Amino acid sequence: MPNRTIQPPIKDIVSLTLPHPVLHHLDNGVVVYESKMGTQEILKLEIVFFAGRPFEDKKLISRPTSRLLKEGTLHRKSAEIAEIVDFYGGTLSMPYNLDTSNIVLYSLNKYFERLLPLIAEIITEPAFAEEELRIFKENSKQSLQVDLTKNDVVAYREITELIFGSDHPYGYNSFPESYANIHREDILRHFKKNYDLSNCIIFISGKTDNAVLDLLNKYLGQIKTNNTRRIVNLDYALNPPKVVKYERSNTVQTAIRIGRRMFNKTHKDFKGFYMLNTILGGYFGSRLMMNIREEKGYTYNIYSSLDSMLYDGYFNLATEVGNEFVEKTLAEIYIEFERLKTELVGDEELEMVRNYLMGTMMGMLDGPFNIAEVVKTMTIENLEYEDFNDLVNTITTISPEQLRDLARKYLNKEEMFQVTVGV
Fold first, then answer.
1. Which residues on adjacent β-strands are paired with residue 43?
2. Cβ contacts of 45 within 8 Å, gap of 6 or more
3. For the segment 36-95, what is each residue's pLDDT rounded down to a tens digit?
4. What are the strands, taking DSSP E only, across 114-209?
5. What architecture is the 243-422 domain classified under in CATH?
6. Taking the model in full, what pTM does it have?
7. Residues pairing with 32 in the sheet
8. Bridge partners, 30 (sequence order)
9. Which CATH number fits domain 22-219: 3.30.830.10, 1.10.3720.10, 3.40.50.720, 3.40.50.300?
10. In whole angstroms, what is the distance from residue 226 CA to residue 92 CA?
């Protein structure tokens, strides 16, 4: 028996290896990435369509198209679809983000053949019923009206619109009246253009085998495609930095958002800035948390992030503070910017952040489904598998001088958009 009074030795994570998927092509040419390493009789199927905002012909149409996919086909009502999935112990979801619309199915191996035909039916014969669309529009309007009463939501909407522009797919906002302009014909047109299987990538993970791949080919590989992947060019001008203040009465807290346009994950500075952002505000022990929450007590939570999309990205810093602390908080945020630009990060802090991120990366490789998630992210964002090793290498070797240079390049107050919503 181990002696529980003695702490086990602490060991550094020296290296991490991303297991490479096995690449397959179905009869119709659709690409399948297989992460084969499960020990339990369960599978995860994810079909990723490039059907988000960059691929819209009409603003706001990608979200209802994605949402209504599982709300009925030409042969089944939404309740029947849900009943079938539940009967066979599966889970079906339709995650939607700015760039893609996904179909995710978790299934026991023994029932995969029962559920896969349903997936094929959903992506080839959705009904997009008028009644389901009406319910979606009403629910969306009500939800948005509630959200617009929240300062942090308003601040987020405003800063993304300022950074990208009101016509940019990543920048435009929806309003309650916007939903009245969504029609079934628009959804059908968006579906036809973007939900062809040639415009998707399939990821299968878990306890896979040849039988699973044969089923994919039987039910998805025989669907006709137009052999065309949607390609777009988001060529929008950069907007000049701006400071905006929105006053709202009867509020005890003010939402603060600070940010700037950045880049996606293929940019040469992404990995280094990812490390720098973690130090600034990317984890609970960050400088922003230690200063503004722990020492000053101005806020309960403050964070910063480098949000990357398929075609662009932005730096985003967010918090909510008592109205009396707004100016002091803003001053402290910019002080932290200047510290990173003028002082070298100390060895102890740098080692802590390295360990934190390496532990996070190790968790990302824990199990076939997590590994498949990493594979999916790298594949759809046009990254090479060597980029994973490069990120690990950057985390473990980046120098204080390199971090200072990145701060000088990207953390300049005069280049930041700043939005406050409250007092």
1. 107, 206
2. 103, 104, 105, 107, 112, 116, 119, 202, 203, 204, 216
3. 987 899 999 999 999 999 999 999 999 999 999 999 999 999 999 999 999 999 999 999
4. 200-206
5. 2-Layer Sandwich (3.30)
6. 0.92
7. 24, 202
8. none
9. 3.30.830.10
10. 26
